[in-house]
Each structure stands twice: as C-alpha cells, then as structure tokens.
Amino acid sequence: MRYGTVVPGRFLSRPNRFIARVEMPEGVETVHVKNTGRCRELLIPGTTVYLEKAENPARKTRYDLIAVEKGSRLINMDAQAPNHVFGEWAAAGGFLPEVTAIQPEFTWGESRLDFCLKTPQGMHLVEVKGVTLEEGGAARFPDAPTERGIKHIRELQQAVEQGLDATLFFVVQMEGICSVAPNDDTHPAFGQALRAASSAGVNVCAYDCLVRPDELVIHQPVPVIL
C-alpha cells in the first residue's frame, strides 16, 4: 500500500491514545495517532516519526502518525495498514491461489473476522493481527491485553471444528524479524488460546513487511514460535 504526502517530524509527547504532539519545521503540531495501542517502546520523546498529510484540509488534525524510527529499523504503526496490505496481497494470489472472491469483515458466529476468501476448494477464514512490538530482533504480540483477540481465536477454532479452513495471520509491520511469538508476559491468556487453536488445526503464520515512510508491502514468511 502507498500513502499520500508523507513528511518527517520529531515526537514530543502523547497526551492520550488518539493524539500526539510532534515538532515540525513550521512549529509544534497536534497529530492523529493511527494506533490506539500503548506503543511505549516506539513513541519516545525525540524519536523521528513520519506523518501522512490528511486529504481533508478542514480536518481538526492535519496529519496522521503512521511510522516511527526505532534505532536503524523503521516500523509502520498504522493499525489500519495490516488489513489493507493483506487484502492487496491476497487479491494478487499471495496467500492462496485461485481466489475467486474476497469478502472483508466477514461475520462468523458472534465475531466479525477480517476476511473470508473463496476458492474452488471452499471458504477460508482469516483474522489479521498487526505486530509492532520488537525485542532483540524478535516480534511479540500483543503489546497490551486483548480480550477481543482471544475471542477471534476461539471463533477460528470453532470454524475449524466445523470443517472450515481458518488462519490467524500476523502482519509484522517491520523488516528483518527473526520470529514472532505470543507475548506471555503481557497477556498469557492470549498465548494459551493461540496454542490451543493451533493444536486444534488453526493455521498460524506471520510475514514481515518492507517498510518505507510512504509504503508498506508484505515481504516474506517469519517463523511463529508457540
């Protein structure tokens, strides 16, 4: 996926989950943060961030914070981007060959899963999770407790038990990661649910991304350590 006009800035503070204060050449700007997660290890005062200029000039915040530098690594932290890049990649045949239809926000049970892909072989349910937390070259998910994530995992497991193909797909929003693992320190229940679902037949996979300030592209598979 490609962004529009992207400019750099220097992160100053995050008054709440939705906005940040960023120093730009024209002065200090209040910008929209496109990720309501904690991201404490990313948004450190003085860090270089990248902002997409909003298309609507009348919008209260003129920019969206979409990416951040962490050392030598550029991390995309746009929470909407993982579904977007997976949808593009799946439509091009990257996930499954012979895809005849892709339905986003597919209702299954009591959840709305991210995608239903249809092929001549049947339906394939996919829940996408974006990963921005990196520690020592390995990625971990989640960065904060997610009861909603556990609910989605259980729905995928129920789908498998009813004979469907189901996948939990981690989009790692950075490049050069050695592995992905559940963050048992932050939310052990998520890891327990993920391991149970994998044992029941839910496919769990991860891909890293090529990240540029104005672009995010699914790149190559990354081992998932359960």
The stretches of 5 or more residues where confidence is low (pLDDT under 50) are none
CA-based gyration radius: 18 Å
Overall tally of structural domains: 2
Give the H and E element order.
EEEEEEHEEEEEHEEHEE
Brief synopsis:
With 226 residues, the chain is of the alpha+beta class. The protein has helices at residues 81-91, 147-161, 188-200, and strands spanning 6-16, 19-24, 27-33, 48-53, 63-70, 73-76, 101-108, 111-119, 122-131, 133-135, 138-141, 165-172, 180-182, 203-212, 215-222.
Structural description of this entry:
- The chain is α+β, with helices and mostly antiparallel strands and 226 residues long.
- It has two domains: 68 residues, Beta Barrel (OB fold (Dihydrolipoamide Acetyltransferase, E2P)); 142 residues, Trna Endonuclease, Chain: A, domain 1.
- It contains three helices and 15 strands.
- Strands 7-8-9-12-14-15 form a six-stranded mixed β-sheet.
- Helix 2 packs parallel to helix 3.
- 38% of the residues are buried.
- The mean pLDDT is 94.
List the helices and strands and how they pair.
Elements: E1 6-16, E2 19-24, E3 27-33, E4 48-53, E5 63-70, E6 73-76, H1 81-91, E7 101-108, E8 111-119, E9 122-131, E10 133-135, E11 138-141, H2 147-161, E12 165-172, E13 180-182, H3 188-200, E14 203-212, E15 215-222
Parallel strand pairs: 3-5, 9-12, 11-13, 12-14
Antiparallel strand pairs: 1-2, 1-4, 2-3, 4-5, 5-6, 7-8, 8-9, 10-11, 14-15
Helix pairs in contact: 2-3
Offer a few descriptive terms:
six-stranded mixed sheet, Trna Endonuclease, Chain: A, domain 1, globular, 17% helix, single chain, 2 domains, OB fold (Dihydrolipoamide Acetyltransferase, E2P)
